[in-house]
Design a protein that fits this description.
The complex is a heterodimer. Chain A is α+β, with helices and mostly antiparallel strands. Chain A is 22% helix and 39% strand. In chain B, strands 1-2 form a two-stranded antiparallel ribbon. Chain B is elongated and about 65 Å long. Classes of the chains: A alpha+beta, B mainly alpha.
Chain lengths: 152, 101
């Protein structure tokens, strides 16, 4: 009877340890997700002339959109602060990628309107896709890779 | 007259245990089948497959959904875990319970 109690207690402690470990791991992950700021990171790899999927920025508040091209010989970086008015337009102001890095600003809901260049040779850019979305466009004659970060 | 009251108490006790185990299982299931956005350098990484598709990507909604699921999973798991610890306190801490008695 004593042995049975010992085994029972040992089993209970193991089960309790498993539950505690599972609970802690869930809590660690949940805490990490909840405390991570509102920032999304997209990687792209676009064939010549291709567009990325449309991206919808959060509406009625400023969104920082910054992007890079990491393809060798064409590396660049650009950024804009963007405002999305649902169903109407996207509005932006920021800096083009270098060579030369000039101010880019405007507002539009028309597909294809240039927003900001992301590469050195000004062939990869972020464009208006619809009044509510933008896209990454590769206007170069070869594949370009890079990433875009949104902070809101 | 005493027996039915005791039975009622036992039944309530069993139901509480079942509820706590169900809560823990639900929390773990939400965790297992949640959206699971990767986090890198303090940013949510949107799967590249989404960007190469045709469908609109809503990063704010994806992040909000991930947060909701994680909060739900955390509350269910932590609440049930603590509840189970209390529920089985007599088995887990037999001496402490005796002292308390």
């Amino acid at each position: 009877m004593k042995d049975y109690n010992k085994v029972r207690r040992f089993g209970s402690l193991i089960l309790a340890t498993v539950v505690a470990i599972l609970t802690l791991s869930v809590m660690v992950h949940a805490t990490q997700v909840i405390t991570t700021p509102n920032a999304a990171f997209f990687s792209y790899s676009l064939a010549p002339g291709a567009n990325s999927a449309p991206i919808t920025p959060v509406a009625n508040q400023s969104v920082l959109v910054m992007g890079t091209t990491t393809t060798f010989n064409f590396r660049g970086v650009g950024q804009v602060a963007m405002l999305h008015i649902t169903g109407s337009f996207l509005e932006w102001t920021g800096l083009e990628s270098i060579s030369p890095s000039t101010i880019t600003s405007g507002f539009s809901g028309v597909a294809g309107t240039h927003i900001v260049f992301l590469d050195f040779s000004h062939q990869v850019d972020i464009q208006v896709n619809t009044a509510d979305t933008f896209r990454i466009h590769n206007g170069a004659s070869a594949t370009r890779t890079g990433n875009v970060t949104l902070i809101w | 007259m005493e027996l039915p009251v005791k039975n009622k108490r036992n039944a309530r006790h069993v139901w509480l245990g079942l509820l706590l185990w169900t809560g823990l299982a639900a929390g773990l299931l939400v965790q297992a089948f949640g959206p699971h956005l990767k986090i890198q350098n303090n940013k949510f990484v949107i799967p590249p497959s989404l960007l190469s598709g045709e469908k609109e990507v809503h990063p704010d909604e994806m992040v909000a959904r991930e947060r909701r699921m994680q909060a739900l999973s955390g509350i269910l798991t932590l609440g049930s875990g603590l509840g189970l610890g209390f529920y089985y306190r007599q088995i887990l801490f037999p001496r402490a319970t005796l002292k308390g008695d």
